[in-house]
Amino acid sequence: MHTPMNKKHIFSESYTMLKPKLSVLATSLLLCAPVLLISACGKQGPAAQGGPNGMPPPEVNVVTVQSRDLPIDYEYVGQTAGIRETEVRARISGILEQRVYEEGAKVKAGQVLFQIDPGSYQTQLASAEAALGVAEAKLNQAKREFARLAPLAAEKAISQREYDDAKSNLEMAEASYKQVRAQVNEAKLNLSYTKVVAPISGVTGIAAKPNGSLVTPSDSLLTTIVQTDPIYVNFSVTEADFLKMNADVANGKLKLPGKRTNNGSLAFEVRVKQADGSIFPTAGKMIFTSEKVNPNTGGFDARAEIANPEGALRPGQFVRVMLQGGSRSNAIAIPQRAVIDSPMGKMVFAASPENKLVPHPVELDGWSRGEWVVTKGLQSGERVLVDGFIKAHDPGMTVTPVPLGNSGAKPAAPQTNSAAASTAKSSH
């Protein structure tokens, strides 16, 4: 009669030296849970009632699961991008005389960035203006001549040929004047282009050419400007997540923080986690979701927009994109460390109404904020073991449940007969 108990005692002492979640032996015990439970319930020895050698039942930390509206988060890898990005190019050829901005500084639209030598363009403008003066004089002369001959032609005092020649001279003078005036406008425009200005407001990049460089139409890039307030965050939602989101929204399992937009966005609030682990203080919003799968990523391209007044987020940064604001109704969640991996799937230990360990296979549906979302295997009101696996790992053994965070406090009392009957009925 003592031999079986000695073997169990030796096994319990050896097992305490192992990590139950990683031990193959522990997993085997879990797989045999129904048999062991039935066997344990029939025993009256110390091992069945408490700890080894008649010791008091070990204390374990438990949480009582309750169905609630559970916040649901999704997290993806993303990259920041300017809301507008443009290249600053020279529109004319010439010698780059001076850079008048500070590289990396914020500039406003219309602010002068570079100065190209204006000398040749000033000369062209002066020449065009002189030509315009000559054209204007010829035009005025043609107007006077036509005005003198027109009455004479009406009185048949001159020939029709003389009249027609005067009219043609006037028309050619008007055309010549318009042509030269266009040349003047072009010369003025080219002269204004010697001052290269910012086309948009934003943050400047490094200068592509040093002072004294020759700028040509084929090599006209001077710098870049990126508008970073607000800033875009581009990311990809996996196909599985996207389809499940839509299905959960359609069947009422998932509630969104707002209405779905016309361009497919699911209206999530967006927070950004930076490379150092810090959370960017400003929340953004999801503004776009593609209608087709990107063959390069296997997911749906998406975009969020975040206010960035201080420019703390820079284009090209890799960040973690967290979609928040959604919630799952009447969900059950348990701490992540309460779940045990086994060859047959995920399991947890629950404390029965009689404070005995009962293994429960569970089905999970992702996790949120450090908790697993349980879809099958647990019901509201059950007490789940969170800490104490080394001391309590045998199905059917008696334990002393202590609410998590209240170690040293009064142990949780066994459930009443009515509660026990309800739990037993639901477990069946």
Description:
- The structure is a single chain.
- With 428 residues, this protein is an alpha+beta fold.
- The chain is elongated, with a radius of gyration of 41 Å.
- It is built from eight helices and 21 strands.
- The strands form three sheets. Strands 1, 15, 16, 17, 20 and 21 form a six-stranded mixed beta sheet that branches.
- It has helices at 2-15, 24-31, 33-42, 46-49, 119-154, 160-192, 239-250, 417-427, and strands at 59-64, 68-89, 94-99, 106-107, 112-116, 195-197, 202-204, 214-215, 221-238, 254-255, 269-273, 284-294, 299-306, 318-335, 340-342, 345-351, 357-361, 363-368, 371-376, 383-387, 400-403.
- Mean pLDDT is 81; it is low at 1-48 and 407-428.
- The chain starts with a helix and ends with a helix.
- It folds into three domains: 2-65 and 339-427, Beta Barrel (conserved putative lor/sdh protein from methanococcus maripaludis s2 fold); 72-83 and 229-324, Elongation Factor Tu (Ef-tu), domain 3 (Beta Barrel); 118-193, Helix hairpin bin (Helix Hairpins), CATH 1.10.287.470.
- The span between the termini is 34 Å
Largest sheet: 6 strands, mixed
Report Rg: 41 Å
Counting DSSP H or I runs of 4 or more residues, the number of helices is: 8
The rough form would be described as elongated
String of helices and strands: HHHHEEEEEHHEEEEHEEEEEEEEEEEEH
- For this entry, what is the oligomeric state of its chains? single chain
SS content category: alpha+beta
What is the CATH third-level topology name of the largest domain? Answer: conserved putative lor/sdh protein from methanococcus maripaludis s2 fold
CATH class of the largest domain: Mainly Beta
The count of DSSP E runs of length 2 or more, i.e. the number of strands, is: 21
